[in-house]
């Protein structure tokens, strides 16, 4: 597997990251090294082994359907860069 | 060339829990924007989601009621994309191993053979927040984000592309709607978005086995619009192909005002959601015991109840179908029968007078002022000859108004049926004397006049005369 600058650009666009050419080349090399390391698994016989979805051996953590008080409007909006009345204000989004 | 439409539906069912899927915030509709939020549903760093057990129970019930297999071990995944109504930058959903798979519903379009529609999967996920435009109090013309709805529990029910017409799609959708409201896991309110549908539509030449490119239509929030949107989209795609064009895979928005669909350019960017297992949520393991317990708790489903109404109570199919329109209506009907009413008669009254009165007054069967027991009592008064069927309607109107028991109303207003032949004969004599011309006509062979006499006698007795006795006596007297 060879990670190209084009791959980095694709992932960067999905993550809304703006990278310059130097960064793209740097990250392409680093990502390639990481994936190359993981790729070693392809050389191992994994027949009959269920893919690992979680690293901790735990299951079924539930809560009951009981209402807890919310943190309140002011706290909810406290970190918002911009607000308008009770709303978070964002640039116009229209379909 | 003839074309065959191919349709698959994705239905989002909002679950009737008190709290959100991953936090204890209330799901109540209509609260002040952003007042029902906490670090989890706001997507603040470090907050940990914990699964609402009721959501799992509801999902299992939905799965069992749609013939799905329940997945013994299912996991949650992050679906990554950016949108202002999605605070975390990902939606928690299920991708691989959804909770329910491989189900089906049998549908029947009127005048066609029954047909089985496959259900690919049902998965649990959180809803996004709500965007509002043009109703902000502050200056500027931006949009506002309300995160009260963020993290509200949804089931997404995905059908196989087995539907072949807009009619099939609507029947399937109505059936699914009936099941989730019947189970009490969704309020079914399509206008408020509690039950919403996206339709995947494509067309292919008749006889072909190669599916055409599909368009996904969003924002169809009524059964009528689903039909309209699908029909418009089928026509659009056929026209496009006939004109030498090609259908592109895209998301389209249905506009109820024009009845048309239009492309949503903002969603055109390649769908690359980079799903991966959510490390914050541990796997969900559902034992056979849990599934069996859920199965025991399932109510009798509409289909089964319809069968029982027909087999045990002798109702015709057309009545049984109407009476299972909702669980409350079916419960009402059944309570009336249990209270001693004749099934056919109770059914007729529920479908007739009761439904009419409910519609006129804008109430629902749950708050019907006449109880099923009172209805059964009214029907008994008809059966044992205390009142006539015509007077029963008057009594019913009074029961509706005052909530009084039918026998009290009959006593108070003197509405007892008159079966005494002496009294009825007296009325008949008067009417025959006053309408000598018609008597001659009848005796001259014009038997249609008989109806006129019945009407006059009933009118004179203010509807209280026993119609059977009236008929019998009239016949004798008119023959002379």
Quick take:
With 95 residues, chain A is mainly α. Helix content of chain A is 35%, strand content 8%.
Seen as an oligomer or otherwise, the chain set is heterodimer
Low-pLDDT residue spans of chain B: none
Bin the strand percentage of chain B: 15-25%
Amino-to-carboxy terminus distance of chain B:
75 Å
The gross shape of chain B turns out to be: elongated
**Can you give the mean pLDDT of chain B?**
91
Strand order of the largest sheet of chain A: 2-3
What's the pLDDT, averaged over the residues of chain A?
Answer: 92
The number of helical segments of chain B is 16
CATH homologous superfamily descriptor of the domain at 1-43 in chain A: Glu-tRNAGln amidotransferase C subunit, N-terminal domain
Write down the Rg of chain B.
30 Å
Helix/strand/pairing category of chain B:
alpha+beta
- Runs of chain A in which pLDDT lies below 50 for 5 or more consecutive residues are none
CATH structural fold name of the domain at 1-43 in chain A:
Histone, subunit A
Kindly, what is the distance between the CA atoms of the first and last residues of chain A, rounded to a whole number of angstroms? 39 Å
Textual characterization of the structure:
The complex is a heterodimer of chains A (95) and B (480). Chain A has 3 helices and 3 strands. In chain A, 35% of the residues lie in helices and 8% in strands. Chain A has helices at 5-14, 21-38, 73-77, and strands spanning 62-63, 83-84, 87-90. Chain A has 95 residues and is mainly α. In chain A, strand 2 and strand 3 form a beta hairpin. In chain A, 8% of the residues are buried. Chain B has 480 residues and is an alpha+beta fold. Chain B folds into 3 domains: 3-290, no CATH class; 300-413, no CATH class; 421-479, Arc Repressor Mutant, subunit A. Chain B has 16 helices and 17 strands. Chain B has helices at residues 39-42, 53-65, 166-182, 223-242, 288-297, 302-313, 317-323, 327-338, 343-361, 372-383, 389-402, 406-413, 421-434, 436-443, 449-460, 467-479, and strands at residues 3-14, 51-52, 69-70, 73-74, 77-80, 90-93, 100-107, 115-126, 130-133, 143-146, 153-159, 195-205, 215-220, 250-255, 260-263, 276-277, 284-285. In chain B, the strands form 4 sheets. In chain B, strands 3-7-8-11-1-12-13-14-15 form a 9-stranded mixed β-sheet. In chain B, helix 4 links the parallel strand 13 (215-220) and strand 14 (250-255). The longest helix of chain B is centred in the middle third of the chain and has 20 residues, at 223-242. In chain B, 39% of the residues are buried. The mean pLDDT of chain B is 91. The chains are: A mainly alpha (95), B alpha+beta (480). At the A-B interface, strand 1, helix 3, strand 2 and strand 3 of A face strand 2, helix 2, strand 9, strand 10 and strand 17 of B. Strand 1 (62-63) of chain A pairs parallel with strand 2 of chain B.
């Amino acid at each position: 597997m060879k990670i190209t600058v084009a791959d980095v650009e694709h992932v960067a666009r999905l993550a809304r990251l703006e990278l310059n050419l130097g960064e793209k080349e740097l990250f392409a090399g680093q990502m390639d090294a990481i994936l190359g390391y993981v790729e070693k698994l392809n050389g191992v016989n994994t027949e009959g082994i269920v893919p690992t979805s979680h690293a901790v051996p735990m299951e079924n953590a539930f809560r009951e359907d009981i209402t807890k008080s919310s943190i309140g409007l002011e706290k909810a909006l406290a970190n918002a860069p911009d607000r308008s009345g009770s709303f978070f204000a964002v640039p116009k989004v229209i379909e | 060339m003839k074309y065959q439409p191919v349709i698959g539906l994705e239905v989002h069912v909002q679950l009737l829990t008190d709290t959100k899927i991953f936090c204890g915030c209330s799901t109540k509709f209509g609260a002040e924007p952003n007042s029902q939020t906490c670090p989890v549903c706001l997507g603040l760093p470090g907050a940990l989601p914990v699964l609402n057990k009721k959501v799992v129970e509801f999902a299992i019930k939905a799965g069992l009621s749609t013939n799905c297999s329940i997945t013994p071990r299912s996991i949650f995944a992050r679906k990554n994309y950016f949108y202002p109504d999605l605070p975390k930058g990902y939606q928690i959903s299920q991708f691989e191993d959804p909770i329910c798979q491989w189900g089906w519903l049998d549908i029947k379009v009127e005048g066609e053979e029954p047909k089985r529609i496959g259900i690919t999967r049902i998965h649990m996920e959180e809803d996004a927040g709500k965007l509002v435009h043009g109703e902000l109090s502050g200056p500027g013309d931006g949009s506002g984000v309300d995160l009260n709805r963020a993290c509200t529990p949804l089931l997404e029910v995905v059908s196989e592309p087995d539907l072949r017409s807009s009619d099939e799609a609507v029947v399937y959708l109505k059936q699914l709607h009936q099941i989730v409201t019947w189970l009490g896991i969704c309020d079914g309110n399509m206008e408020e978005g509690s039950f919403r549908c996206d339709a995947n539509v494509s067309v292919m030449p008749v006889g072909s086995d190669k599916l055409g490119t599909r368009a996904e239509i969003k924002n169809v929030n009524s059964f009528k619009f689903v039909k309209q949107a699908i029909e418009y989209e089928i026509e659009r795609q056929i026209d496009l192909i006939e004109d030498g064009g090609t259908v592109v895979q895209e998301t389209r928005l249905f506009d109820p005002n024009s009845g048309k669909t239009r492309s949503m350019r903002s969603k055109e960017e390649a769908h690359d959601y980079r799903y991966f297992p959510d490390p914050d949520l541990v796997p969900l393991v559902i034992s056979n015991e849990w599934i069996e317990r859920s199965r025991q708790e399932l109510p009798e489903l509409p289909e089964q109840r319809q069968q029982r109404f027909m087999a045990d109570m002798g109702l015709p199919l057309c009545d049984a179908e109407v009476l299972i329109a909702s669980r409350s209506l079916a419960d009402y009907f059944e309570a009336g029968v249990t209270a001693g009413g004749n099934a056919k008669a109770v059914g007729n009254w529920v479908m007739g007078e009761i439904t009419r009165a409910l519609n006129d007054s804008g109430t629902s069967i749950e708050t019907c002022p006449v109880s099923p027991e009172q209805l059964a009592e009214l029907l008994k008064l008809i059966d044992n000859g205390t009142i006539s069927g015509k007077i029963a309607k008057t009594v019913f109107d009074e029961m509706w108004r005052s909530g009084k028991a039918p026998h009290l109303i009959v006593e108070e207003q003197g509405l007892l049926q008159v079966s005494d032949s002496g009294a009825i004969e007296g009325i008949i004599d008067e009417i025959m004397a006053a309408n000598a011309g018609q008597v001659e006509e009848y005796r001259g062979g014009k038997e249609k006049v008989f109806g006129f006499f019945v009407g006059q006698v009933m009118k004179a007795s203010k509807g209280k005369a026993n119609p059977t006795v009236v008929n019998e006596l009239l016949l004798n007297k008119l023959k002379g």
